[in-house]
Amino acid sequence: PGEIARARDALAASAPTHLVLDGELYWQWLPSPGCGSFSPDGRELAVAAETSAVSGVIHVFELPGGTLAEQHEVSLRPSRVLHLGGSILASGPVDSTYRRHGLVRSAGGRATKLLWSSHTLLDLAPYRPGFVVLYRLGTGSAEHMRFCANDGEVVRDVPLAGLGLPDQYCRVLAVGPGSRSLALSLADRLWIMGGDPARVLASGRAD
Question: In the chain, at which end, N or C, are there fewer CB atoms within 10 A of the end residue's CB?
Answer without folding.
Answer: C
